[in-house]
Write a structure and sequence with these properties.
Aspartate Aminotransferase, domain 1; binds pyridoxal-5'-phosphate; Aspartate Aminotransferase, domain 2; single chain; 392 residues; 2 domains; alpha/beta; seven-stranded mixed β-sheet; four-stranded mixed β-sheet; 13 strands; globular; 13 helices
Amino acid sequence: MNLSINDFRYTYPSERLLMGPGPSNCAPRVLQAMANPCIGHLDPQFLAIMDETQQLLRFLFQTKNPLTIPVSGTGSAGMEAALVNMIEPGDEAVICVNGVFGVRMTEIVQRIGGKLTRVDGEWGRAMDPDLVRKAVKGKNPKLLAVVHGETSTGACSDLSTLSSIARECGVLFLVDMVTTLGGINVPIDELGIDVAYSGTQKCISCPPGLSPISFGQRAMEALDRRKAPVMSWYLDMGMLRNYWGNERKYHHTAPINMIYGFREALRIIAEEGLEERFKRHLKNHRALVAGIETMGLSMLVPEKERLPMLNAIKIPEGINDLQVRRDLLNGFGIEIGAGLGPLAGKIWRVGLMGHTSTLRSVLLFLTALETVIKSQGFKPGAGAIEAATTIV
Ligand SMILES: *Cc1c(COP(=O)(O)O)cnc(C)c1O
């Protein structure tokens, strides 16, 4: 084998403004924390960092749940961990589907051998609670699952109503918070959520690689009552509990430096304060929408059902979707997301997540978008920047 080291230069990608569906930009402090020495995963110094990480994560989830840890793997690992621990072969699960990530949940349930009831909602809308209630009441499922913020469409479902349906019917309530955790208020204890999981690269603004997860009392009881062992060895929450708990029973090697970065991202969130952080996400979202609508473009999702961290903008007639995204990236260093599935070519997905959610990002994006669509002959209405800056 001939390999010339000169073909592998010491180069790294350039800086981008990450305004897609994730990852978002990381605070420099997070990346600096990750550059600290890699030590042993049973080193007392690392054990202390694991403990602090769990405390900070409970603060973010607003929970007392002892089993609140970052699973090693991205958001999808959290989704799989949640479902594979709660569903045994033959168990019935009601899954809400109003976008790509709901579909992913149904695929996991089927792989586990669960009995799937799928409630289909409209893509671009919140889940309709009446449809969900009907589906849960008609059966006697073990679990109801929903994606809180559908990153594929920009729609946000109402957790308190769905949670009360789960309680009425005595089923476990499982929620995907990959996009929403750290960007809007999701107090999981108060909302009566039994299992919640998230990801690090969206509103937590840490690189992808961990999936925060929390299991409540009822979920722990369901875990203890299982007849069959959890089908995934790596994602077995019983074993992970013994690793992250006082026993420190070796299961796998925690991704040491990733945990440093995550802990730092959580510290940044605690410094800002949850309420301030949620306000910031909402305000920048409103600024973006004001600018977009002033330009004469429109949003996919009705106002009351919109996610502040993921904005789905309808692509106007005659505009070349791919060209716009290319021009934004090559000309301005701005990444936005394309539509997925039935929404491909119909929307742009513009993220305002965590560290990226600033008025500066909004103004840069509006200016860049205006320039790019003008070059394709679109005549945007004037005053977008002014409209965005006057939002309080
Ligand atoms: C991003 C995302 C996921 C998947 O997370 P990965 O980190 O890409 O594995 C799951 N659910 C939702 C709602 C997401 O936005």
